[in-house]
Amino acid sequence: MKLKPEKIQNYKDYTIIIETQKSSVPTPKTDEEWDRLFEKEPDDVKGTHKYKINDKDGNLVDEDDSNMWDTQACLDNAMNEIEHYIKRDNNGWSNFRWDKSRTGKK
Question: Residue 97: inside a domain, yes or no?
């Protein structure tokens, strides 16, 4: 069953889709638990939220499901990624498209 997106945000020429997901570890409750969590490799931990970024044609250009625990974290990270895309486009990388094979994710 596909979940309804928690938030859809347009940012520049991109659309950010934020969804909830089941975290791979219990949600930390104390500062010490948060510190231990962020000492781990970020890709090893799935938080409660994830995002996808689509270009203006609806093509997936990026997604991240690691170590984000609220909507704002997803939005901040996705907007930061979009800013990197824009810089790359301005430096002659206009044909760049995110490719999961670069990260080893499946």
Answer: no
d(CA 68, CA 23): 9
Integer Cα distance of 29 and 82 in angstroms? 31
Q: What is the β-pairing status of strands 14-20 and 7-11?
A: antiparallel
Q: What is the DSSP letter of 91?
A: T
Domain that holds residue 81: 7-91
Residue 106 lies in a domain: no
Closest CA to 45 of 29, 61, 22, 63: 22
pTM of the model as a whole: 0.77
Q: Identify whether the C-beta of residue 11 lies closer than 8 Å to the C-beta of residue 78.
A: yes
Per-residue model confidence as pLDDT tens digits over 53-75: 999 999 999 999 998 999 999 99
